[in-house]
Amino acid sequence: MITKCATDSELILNSVLERCGSWQNVLAELQLSFLCFLIGQHFDSFDQWKKLVALLCRNQSSIYKYEDLYTELISVLHFQLRELPEDFFVDIVSSNNFLTTTLHNLFANISESTASAGLKSRAQKFSDHLTKHFGWDFDLEPEDCEPVVVDEFGNY
Length: 156
Description:
63% helix; spliceosome; AAR2_C_sf; mRNA splicing; AAR2_C
């Protein structure tokens, strides 16, 4: 059960949806937190936005159940990302972009789900747009998902 919760956030999403009342309210919270960060430069709002994006993107089991939510999520993220420079999400210390990894999960989850062809097509178009605009490649496996090779001396 713990492993399932770590890899698929279905239980957490259901809890959030129950508390918020509807998926539209979850997207409203996503938009409000983004605006509070963007306009008010409020770091806690950015953290809330990141947590909501991660929650929605890590969820594989409920994509079919909440297909309207995911269709709208793609639109919301499309317009939000248009407001930011392409290097905005890169961590200066690790040169890691949390959003590329998170969106890679979203696109893989949608592709592997039983979602409609319309949602799959929309996700593919969004992926293609991000690749063209930001140069992010979602076909490559993120570094943290790649296998680690250890030689005979225990070095990586």
